[in-house]
Amino acid sequence: MSSGHGHDQKGHTDHADGGHEEHAEHEEHEEDEHEEKEEHEDKHEDHSEHKSAHKEEHKVEVKTPSVKVTVAKKKISELDLITLILVAVIGRILLEPFPSVEPIIPIAVYAGLRYGADAGILVGLISYPLSNIFMEGGPLGLWSFLQAIGGAIAGAIAGYVPKLTKGNLVNYTIIGTIIFELALNIPDQELLIWPFSIIHIVSNIIIALVVGELVIKEK
Fold first, then answer.
1. How many domains does the chain have?
2. Is the whole model's pTM more than 0.70, yes or no?
């Protein structure tokens, strides 16, 4: 009787010990799974941080081309600005005997291409009224205001062109002269007036070619 009871106690003890070992193994398995989950989350966070850093680098790379364009223009000095205006004014006075032949638009375009829109605007805006003091009709009148506006627009447009070249000087002189003629002739309900507008465009192309050869050194 007593030996059978002892066998049951031993079996119960073995069963208890076995259950305890299984419970311990189960806890160790859960801890391993928890550690693997944490490692997986750490890897995911590292991957997200790497992805975020890559995006930031990509944003910087996209922005760099716009910076290069903004530093292309040389700052104009007061002496250079006065010199350009005087050359434009004196050139127009000397060419007065030849109708519609004057150098202001090509010089304003050159100023815009080399020094930026502000310089181009000032040369075109000031040169026409100033030269009109010495021209027939004087500086006061609608024509003087329209000439100043047309010259300023021509110089301003050239100021946004990133590179100073002989080709750009000729091309934007043509565009600026056409805009000038439109600004001057629209109040008379005209676009281009024959032959004066055509003479102005052709003569400005020739002047732009001469100016380009004299002052632009292309590599």
1. 2
2. no
Q: How far apart are CA 168 and CA 92, in angstroms?
A: 22
Q: Pick from 183, 85, 72: which is nearest to 129 by CA?
A: 85
Tell me the CA distances in angstroms from 156 to 34, 35, 66, 116, one per residue in order.
Answer: 68, 67, 20, 8
Asked whether residue 9 is assigned to any structural domain, the reply reads: no
Q: For residue 10, what are the CA distances in angstroms to 19, 24, 128, 186?
A: 14, 21, 119, 117
Give the HSE-up count for residue 124: Cα atoms under 13 Å, Cβ half-sphere.
33
Q: 22 and 96, same structural domain?
A: no
Q: Which residues contact 54 (CB under 8 A, 6 or more apart)?
A: none
Domain boundary among 25, 53, 71: 71
CA quadruple 168, 174, 178, 183: dihedral positive or negative?
positive
Where in 4-133 does DSSP place strands (E)?
none
Q: The domain that contains 211 carries what CATH number?
A: 1.10.1760.20
* pLDDT tens digits along 59-90: 444 444 443 444 457 888 999 999 999 999 99
Both 46 and 85 in one domain: the answer is: no
Among left, alpha and beta (phi > 0; psi -120 to 50; other), residue 128 is alpha
Give the residue numbers spanning the domain of 48. 14-71
Compute the residue count for the chain.
219
The helix/strand/coil state of 101 is: coil
